[in-house]
Write a structure and sequence with these properties.
Elements lengths: L2 H17 L4 H6 L2 H4 L8 H15 L11 H14 L4 H8 L3 H22 L7 H4 L16 H11 L3 E3 L1 H19 L2 E5 L7 E3 L1 H17 L5 E9 L2 E7 L9 H14 L2 E3 L13 E6 L4 E6 L3 H11 L4 E6 L5 H8 L3 E4 L2 E2 L2 E2 H10 L7 E6 L4 H6 L4 E4 L4 H19 L1
Parallel strand pairs: 2-4, 8-9, 8-10, 10-13, 13-14
Antiparallel strand pairs: 1-3, 4-5, 5-7, 6-7, 11-12
Helix pairs in contact: 5-7, 6-7, 10-11, 11-12
Length: about 425
């Protein structure tokens, strides 16, 4: 095998590992743990994750490097795409670039990272380990036109769940559909209560799904009015499109795209049992989960780590409060009464393990879910000392949100 062939093979496996950086099964199944000499470690996946994220940080330009330089751009793309697992579409928007431009520079950044890893870890001495493995499966060409499914998935990834103003969303969809209503001679009336709670949903997808429902209903009308109503129903916000007239025919095909968008957005579309014949009333109802913001106290002396966690929780059902000084943790927690606490344990001036014990012994705070989040491989110790959950840094946004959802969802349901 030539040196170029070995590097191409390494690049393929590196790309797979970076894209699935927080998927232990994928990382363990590939050849990289053996290539980096990590296969004998008990924490081989965590060690590989740390090795790769540390390598990305090693490529961080010096403070003297101009911020608009290519080296800073490549570093930011590596950090956003892989350490933080931010979708390409979001990275492109954040950096003011086209998606195709990001794809080209992402490829260049991976090659830079691969060269650094190959030389720094002397992988040429273990390159024989690559000779006996099959080439990794090719991803779709980076400049290939996406399929409809891929486009929807990209849209879903670029439109994360947010606390959504349902009334504003309804008004926007109705305003977009207004020219169609006028062309068909249809009046559309909207009725939403002033105290309508917010929903947790992907607003762009929900708006497009609601627009599909409105156009399908309008085109099936023989009367001249549609009614859009919204109300809180249990733990959901329900948006109902109805008519006071007979329909000519409401077809499944007209709603298929809308249903797909609403499903991807985190909602459900509820339809009458019989959509094939005339009906005296629609109704079509979109049900969205209500958003309830639980306070999450983030305690870490590292400002960058706190900023990253705050970004992860932005627009979610969790209100993040960040604290760098652990000496103030108890007093602030007494004031906030957080539902969850994300706690680093390596902080100067205050032992995080001791702080964990104080939280557990505190009569007003002991019931909070405490998530120890650290670079240390000390899960057993953390749980023994009272941690509800343990996360090893670096933490993926999806992992943090899934952990909070799992720990706090039962309480949210009970409160509904």
């Amino acid at each position: 095998m030539t040196d170029d062939a070995e590097m191409e093979l390494f690049l393929g496996y590196l790309r797979t590992a970076l894209n699935q950086l927080y998927e232990p099964r994928t990382l363990r199944a590939g050849p990289l743990p053996a290539l980096f000499g990590l296969q004998d470690q008990r924490q081989d996946v965590a060690a590989l994750q740390t090795l790769l994220t540390d390598a990305i940080e090693a490529l961080r330009p010096t403070p003297a490097t101009p911020q608009d330089s290519g080296s800073w751009r490549l570093y930011r793309i590596l950090r956003l795409r892989y350490t933080e697992q931010v979708p390409q579409t979001v990275v492109a928007g954040d950096m003011g670039l086209s998606v195709r431009h990001v794809q080209r520079e992402e490829k260049q950044a991976r090659e830079l990272l691969a060269d650094y890893l190959w030389k720094t870890h002397h992988l040429v001495e273990r390159r024989h380990l690559l000779a006996d493995v099959a080439a990794p499966p090719d991803d779709a060409p980076e400049d290939a036109a996406p399929t409809r499914v891929q486009e929807l998935e990209l849209l879903r990834d670029s439109d994360p769940p947010q606390i959504t103003d349902v009334q504003a969303l309804i008004l926007a969809a109705v305003e977009t559909a207004r020219p169609l209503f006028q062309a068909l001679g249809i009046q559309c009336e909207v009725d939403t209560p002033a105290d309508l709670p917010p929903a947790r949903a992907r607003p762009l997808l929900i708006e497009q799904g609601l627009l599909g429902v409105l156009t399908a209903a309008a085109e099936a009308q023989v009367a001249r009015a549609l009614y859009v109503e919204a109300a809180a129903e249990g733990d959901a916000v329900a948006v109902t499109v109805s008519s006071r007239a007979t329909l000519t025919r409401l077809r499944h095909d007209d709603l298929a795209s809308a249903r797909q968008l609403i499903d991807l957005a985190g909602g459900t579309l509820v339809t009458p049992d019989d959509l094939e014949g005339p009906a005296s009333d629609l109704p079509l109802t979109i049900r969205l989960p209500q958003a309830r913001q639980d306070t999450v106290l983030l305690i870490d002396d590292n400002a960058d780590a706190l900023q990253l966690l705050q970004r992860y929780l932005s627009g979610t059902p969790y209100r993040a409060v960040a604290l760098r000084d652990p000496a103030q943790a108890i007093a602030l927690a007494e004031e906030l009464r957080p539902r969850a606490i994300v706690l680093d344990v390596m902080m100067p001036g205050r032992d995080g393990w001791a702080l964990l014990g104080q939280f557990r012994e505190h009569p007003q705070l002991h019931a909070a879910a405490i998530i120890v989040c650290t670079v240390l491989p000390q899960e057993r110790l953390a749980r023994t000392l009272g941690a509800t959950e343990f996360l090893r840094k670096p933490v993926h946004r999806a992992t943090l949100l899934a952990t909070l959802d799992r720990l706090l969802a039962p309480a949210q349901t009970a409160a509904a």
